[in-house]
Design a protein that fits this description.
Elements (H helix, E strand, L loop, with lengths): L1 E2 L14 E2 L7 H8 L4 H26 L19 H7 L6 E2 L4 E5 L5 H8 L5 E3 L10 H4 L3 H6 L3 E2 L4 E5 L9 H8 L4 E6 L2 H18 L7 H5 L11 H5 L2 H9 L7 E5 H6 L1 H11 L11 E4 L4 E6 L2 E3 L14 H22 L9
Parallel strand pairs: 4-7, 4-8, 5-7, 8-9
Antiparallel strand pairs: 1-2, 3-6, 10-11, 11-12
Length: 356
């Protein structure tokens, strides 16, 4: 007879099966004794053994816990009533507590930060905040203090890494200093894409959001160019892609080896190598393999699986970009070229983005 206790914590699967072992010694003596037991007493003895076994199993689980405690589901999708993320935020196991993050995904917006977070989340040693807290870029929230920030984090074990992402951190003046004041040895993840592609993606999201509210948004070219034909650097989406302006802030506060720069374009084509590098950077045992990723032809990007759980990003991710005149793209690439070259030099990493 087997017992299958299941513990719920996070959104992974960990089912533990305990099997009773048959005695091989003194079998004849035991068999002889059973002749003197009535069927009723034998049944009672079996029930008692079952209860004792169950209690022992529960005790072992309570004391030792589970290395990868999760929810056993045949399949999970965002539209189902069971919300594993909420379970993970609310459920507290013994020796777990809410901890300040040891790793932050600081940007960039529309660079692939959500995908990066979800891909890392299948690692049993990662606990992530499901929401963007915006603690270090929001004056009102920052004034609430680190204890408030800690309370927004998920429960985790002492040997797990808590991760929070807020892409606005990367472009916010003063954010590096605030983060260092919290933890000077923190690990930072920055995922970037080819600047023009990121800009178009940013515009596409803004346009989609306005369309849902029946609001008008000006054409792409009218926003990114001024009337005199120069690039409109007052447009925030244009500035976000000027990576070299912002990385200087971070390198002025943190050591280069505290920041991992992830290639978002490569992660779209093949997430495994980028996630492998991220595991190394965080000092984690490699537990995320190629088998954890599968390409969804309908959505057009990679999704993640862990045991019986398959999960894709929501509909707002991977949306199609509007058609843009090639001349506009070429002009924008030429504009970003000097910023790109400076960025390569600062981070000691050449992304080879096109310049015309």
């Amino acid at each position: 007879m087997g017992l299958n206790p299941v513990s719920i914590f996070g959104d992974r699967v960990f089912c533990v099966t305990f099997l009773q072992h048959k005695a091989v010694n003194k079998q004849s003596a035991i068999t002889g004794t059973l002749w003197y037991l009535s069927k009723g007493r034998l049944y009672a003895l079996c029930v008692t053994a079952f209860i004792v076994s169950f209690c022992l199993v529960a005790h072992v689980l309570y004391v030792r816990y589970l290395n990868d405690p999760t929810l056993c589901l045949e399949n999970y999708h965002d539209d189902e009533p069971i919300n594993v993320d909420i379970l993970r935020e609310k459920l507290k196991l013994p020796e777990t507590k809410r901890r300040l993050p040891q790793c932050l995904i600081i940007g960039v917006r529309k660079g692939g930060t959500r995908a990066l977070l979800e891909f890392l989340n299948i690692h049993s040693m990662i606990q992530r905040s499901t929401d963007e807290i915006h603690f270090f870029d929001n004056e009102r929230k920052y004034s609430m203090g680190l204890e408030w920030y800690r309370q927004q984090m998920p429960y985790s074990f002492a040997d797990q890494i808590t991760v929070e992402k807020s892409p606005a951190y990367f472009i916010t003046e003063g954010a590096p200093e605030r983060i260092r004041a919290m933890n000077e040895s923190i690990r930072l993840l920055l995922i970037v894409r080819e600047p023009v592609t990121r800009l178009i993606s940013d515009y596409s999201q803004l346009a989609a959001n306005k369309a849902k509210k029946d609001k008008f948004i000006r054409p792409f070219q009218d926003l990114v160019f001024r009337e005199d034909g120069t690039v409109n650097t007052d447009y925030r989406a244009v500035r976000v892609s000027m990576y070299s302006l912002y990385i200087k802030m971070w390198l002025g506060v943190f050591q280069r080896d505290q920041i991992l720069i992830i290639n978002g374009d490569r992660m779209i084509r093949d997430p495994y190598p980028e996630i492998y590098k991220t595991e190394q950077f965080l000092g984690l045992e490699h537990r995320i393999g190629r088998e954890n990723f599968f390409y969804n032809k309908t959505k057009g990007f990679y999704c993640v699986r862990n045991y019986t759980v398959d999960k894709c990003l929501n509909e707002s991710k991977g949306r199609k970009h509007p058609p843009i005149d090639p001349e506009i793209i070429s002009k924008l690439r030429q504009f970003y070229a000097p910023f790109n070259r400076e960025f390569y030099s600062l981070v000691r990493q050449d992304f080879g983005w096109p310049e015309d």
